[in-house]
Design a protein that fits this description.
The protein is α/β, with parallel strands linked by helices. It is 52% helix and 14% strand. Strands 3, 4, 5, 6, 7, 8, 9, 10 and 11 form a nine-stranded mixed sheet that branches. It has a two-stranded antiparallel ribbon with strand order 1-2. A hairpin with a 4-residue loop joins strand 13 and strand 14. The chain is elongated, with a radius of gyration of 28 Å.
């Protein structure tokens, strides 16, 4: 019986190992500043070219539960930090692989898993010790974001400019997201706008295309007469009531221009005859605008977001219920609001084709997440896999002093932490082991922790290299270690009943 249980555990381990290896192979080639692209193809022949790890993982076929656990860990990393998903996936698979070697040699799986989690805490401590505060400096910010956007200087440049315009306090705010300020459009250009880009266009083409120094009304409601319940509307009284409310509203809307309001944004629709009336008054209406962007405009223009019940008061006292925009312009399927009391930067990202635009948008979001994480959460550590490599060396020093079976879990994590460095070197067309030996020789001789130049394949000073946010590294380490420990503890896989599919 014991032998049978061991066999079940071994089979589960090997199955899980192969599943996470397959997931790792799908994204490992994209890791690092010289990472390559992956071509995704669906059953209809549609293709997508990307080097974004989360995009690949979320769209690949992954029937095995262990692979789905790895993908879930990467998804959690994406949601939490906006970066480091590929590192999380690669590190998870590598820890499982190294742990499997120890388990197959006879070390109890539960002790290996325990050791992984213990070592993770120690590794987090080493990473925190080597972290340095991120100077809020143009050159430093540029160097930090450049790897996240795959070395695209133009994209790194406008992201850096956006961060500088926001300032450190805004970037540290939990309520602010630089990623949310990115809009993908259909033109082959990348541009920074000092204001808000609303992902909706004017309600009628006859409405103004460009306005300067205008009052803007923000409405979280439908622009039209007060609604009458359907059951009431079906009666004669209800019809008369609705017509009366409609006439009152049209009279109100007819005097909209007299209040000085030239732009109206709504979260819901607008009646056609109301739109026609407002168009004749040369008022620009943007309806069904995303509520998040209306809230951003509220902050930018220092204007409240109101409901229809407040509209009459707003028209009588527009100074209290509207905001002033320096310029409002319609561009393709967006409306751009510049100026105002508190303008923040927005980024318009586009490429030569829709596919390229989407990929650039994903890169921009990764870069924005990297920048904000670096400013918001505890500084930076050496990039390019160097921080993980230094942590691996520190763990192995500690392992020499440890006894008991848990030390093999420590060893599994230490060995796995070398993989990001080795994988980046391989992706850059370099000799990983040769580069690793040069790194070790440098540190043995008492040199300061080096940086990596993957273009030239050489060790450089920290100042010449690039940094990664500490927060991203700590989050990836935690997600990978906890997921790997959970996977290696699995002794059996049982298919559950499918409820609701009973045979008839």
């Amino acid at each position: 019986m014991a032998n049978e249980q061991k066999e079940k555990g071994r089979d589960a381990l090997l199955g899980n190992l192969e599943a996470v290896r397959a997931a790792k192979r799908a994204v490992a080639g994209t890791l690092g500043p010289k990472g390559m692209d992956t071509l995704l193809v669906d059953e209809y022949g549609n293709v997508l070219v990307t080097n974004d790890g989360m995009t690949i993982l979320s769209r690949m076929e992954a029937p095995h539960p262990a692979a789905r656990m790895l993908i879930s860990a990467a998804g959690s990393q994406q949601e939490k930090t906006g970066d480091g998903t590929t590192t999380t996936a690669v590190l998870t698979a590598e820890i499982v692989e190294r742990a499997a070697e120890q388990i197959q040699s006879g070390v109890p799986a539960v002790r290996v898993a325990q050791g992984i989690l213990e070592a993770r805490k120690a590794a987090a401590g080493y990473l925190a010790k080597m972290a340095g505060e991120l100077p809020f400096d143009e050159q430093v910010l540029f160097r930090t974001v450049l790897p996240a956007v795959r070395g695209r200087n133009e994209l790194a440049g406008i992201l850096t400019e956006a961060a500088l315009l926001c300032g450190p306090e805004k970037l540290k705010s939990e309520e602010f997201s630089l990623r949310s300020r990115i809009s993908v459009h259909g033109r082959p250009e990348m541009r920074l706008v000092k204001g808000t880009v609303v992902n909706q266009t004017r309600a009628l083409d006859r409405m103004p295309e460009r306005l300067e120094q205008v009052r803007v009304l923000l409405l979280d409601d439908r622009l039209g007469p007060e609604e009458v319940r359907r059951e009431t509307l079906s009666t004669e009284y209800g019809s008369r009531l609705y017509e009366e409310k409609r006439r009152e509203f049209l009279a109100l809307a007819g005097g909209m221009a007299g209040s000085g309001i030239r732009v109206i944004l709504t979260t819901r629709g607008t009646e056609p005859d109301v739109l026609e009336m407002l168009a004749r008054q040369e008022i620009l209406v943007v309806d069904r605008a995303p509520y998040r962007q209306i809230r951003e405009l509220s902050s930018q223009l220092a204007a409240p977001v109101i409901r229809m019940a407040t509209l009459s008061e707003a028209l009588r006292n527009p100074d209290a219920y509207t905001g002033l925009a320096g310029e409002v312009s319609v561009e393709q399927e967006t409306v751009i609001f510049s100026g105002g009391a508190h303008p923040l930067p927005s980024l318009l990202i586009g490429g030569e084709t829709p596919e390229i635009s989407e990929e650039l948008g994903r890169m921009a979001e990764d870069g924005a997440g990297t920048l904000q994480a670096a400013v918001r959460n505890g500084g930076v550590v050496p990039g390019g896999g160097v921080a993980e490599l230094l942590t691996a060396e520190a763990l192995e020093e500690e392992i020499r002093e440890r006894t008991g079976a848990t030390r093999y879990g420590w060893l599994a994590l230490a060995q796995a932490l070398r993989r990001p460095f080795l994988q980046m070197a391989e992706n850059a067309g370099l000799s990983p082991l040769e580069l690793l030996e040069r790194f070790r020789e440098h540190t043995r001789n008492g040199g300061p922790p080096p940086g990596m130049d993957y273009d030239r394949g050489i060790l450089v000073s920290r100042e010449e290299s690039f940094d990664d946010p500490l927060y991203v590294k700590l989050s990836a380490l935690a997600a990978a270690s906890e997921t790997a420990a959970a996977i290696v503890r699995i002794e059996n896989i049982v298919r559950m009943k499918s409820y609701g599919r009973e045979k008839t």
